[in-house]
Structures are given as structure tokens and as C-alpha cells.
Design brief:
The chain is of the alpha+beta class. It has helices at 2-26, 131-161, 168-198; strands at 30-34, 40-41, 47-52, 63-66, 74-75, 79-81, 84-90, 96-105, 111-120. It has a domain at 27-120: Immunoglobulin-like, CATH 2.60.40.1220. The strands form 2 sheets. Strands 1, 3, 5, 6 and 7 form a 5-stranded antiparallel beta sheet that branches. Strands 2-9-8-4 form a 4-stranded mixed beta sheet, with no helix packed on it. A hairpin with a 2-residue loop joins strand 6 and strand 7 (84-90). The termini are far apart.
């Protein structure tokens, strides 16, 4: 009886050990991050780096960064190199607590999610988004006077050539031609009457 009880106890202990050790060895977890969890930073990072205990995959939008009052950083395309995930970020927002939310895929297909909180001690103002809008409007007004001046040049040309359908020099040529025909007719008429007067 004692041997059977000992065997049963050892069997139960072995089963418990196997069932608790298997999930622990298969569980994917975050080992470290940059920024580190709970870090206090005077300057905002330009890249997020997450290191896991095993290689992971990347679903759509694996990393997001949010701050006070719903401030969200622009996160670039993330890349995975084994167990390390990196993603460029464009920080902007007030000082305060920020959180990195990540979502990765483990080798067994499970989705692993988590949050890393850190603090910015100084605000970060956006600097790369303001110059393009300021330069774009300045180039457009310079093009508008060019377009508005071109009709002004075309208007006098249409007025000069379209007053009566024909320019003034054309009317002068017509008048000279008519006088020439009349003069030529008069000459022919005088030549035709001179023989009749002789008879």
C-alpha cells in the first residue's frame, strides 16, 4: 500500500510538473525595450525597439505610441530581425506619460500583446510637417499673376485686328484699286471717242 501511494504521488507530481513547464517554455514574452519600461526621458526617441525571448512575426500595425490627451505618434514600417522588432517614429506632443502598445505573432500562431509605459519630461513640437505647407502656397501666388497677365496681352491684339473685320491699310488698298480702275476706264473711254470725233 505504501509503494502504491508513493507511486501515485510521484505520478501526480510528474504530471503537474510537465503541465506547468510546457506553457512556460512555449510562452513568448518581452525581454526588453527601448525606451525602457518606466523610463523618464528628456528627449523623445526616434525609434522604438522591442526584444522578445524568441523570434516573432509582425501583423498589421504592430506598434502604436499614444500620449496625453490622445496624442498619437506617427509610426513607420516596423521590421523584425529574429526576436528584435524596430520601428521609426515621429514624436510630437506635450510632456507626460506615453505608452507603447505592441502586437506580435508567436511561433505557435498566438497573438502576443502588451504595453510599455515611459515618460517625457519636455514637450516635443512637430518640425517636419510645417515647412511643406508654408512653401506650397508661396509658389502658387507667383503663378497666378503670370496667368492673369497673359489675357491682358492677348486682349489688345484682338482689339487691334478686329475693329471692322479688316485693318485700315486694307481699306486704303481697296480705295486705291478702285481709283485705278476708274482712271483706267476713263483712259479707255477717251481713246474710244477720239476716232468718232474725226469722222
Amino acid at each position: 500500500m505504501t509503494f502504491r501511494r508513493l507511486s501515485a504521488a510521484l505520478l501526480l507530481a510528474g504530471v503537474a510538473l510537465v503541465t506547468t513547464a510546457a506553457p512556460a517554455s512555449a510562452h513568448t514574452s518581452l525581454k526588453s525595450s527601448n525606451p525602457a519600461k518606466g523610463a523618464s526621458l528628456a528627449a523623445a526617441p526616434t525609434q522604438i525597439e522591442l526584444t522578445f525571448n524568441e523570434a516573432v512575426g509582425l501583423p498589421a500595425d504592430p506598434i502604436t505610441v499614444q500620449g496625453p490627451d490622445g496624442t498619437a505618434w506617427a509610426v513607420g514600417k516596423a521590421s523584425a530581425a529574429g526576436a528584435v522588432i524596430t520601428a521609426p517614429v515621429t514624436p510630437a506632443g506635450p510632456a507626460g506619460e506615453y505608452s507603447i502598445k505592441y502586437k506580435v505573432t508567436a511561433d505557435d500562431g498566438d497573438t502576443i500583446t502588451g504595453t510599455v509605459a515611459f515618460t517625457l519630461t519636455a514637450p516635443v513640437a512637430p518640425s517636419t510637417t510645417s515647412p511643406p505647407p508654408s512653401t506650397a502656397p508661396s509658389s502658387q501666388p507667383s503663378a497666378l499673376p503670370v496667368n492673369s497677365s497673359s489675357p491682358a496681352v492677348a486682349a489688345p491684339a484682338s482689339d487691334a485686328g478686329g475693329s471692322g473685320g479688316l485693318p485700315a491699310w486694307a481699306w486704303i488698298l481697296i480705295a486705291v484699286g478702285i481709283l485705278a480702275v476708274v482712271a483706267f476706264g476713263a483712259v479707255l473711254g477717251s481713246r474710244g471717242r477720239s476716232p468718232a470725233d474725226k469722222y
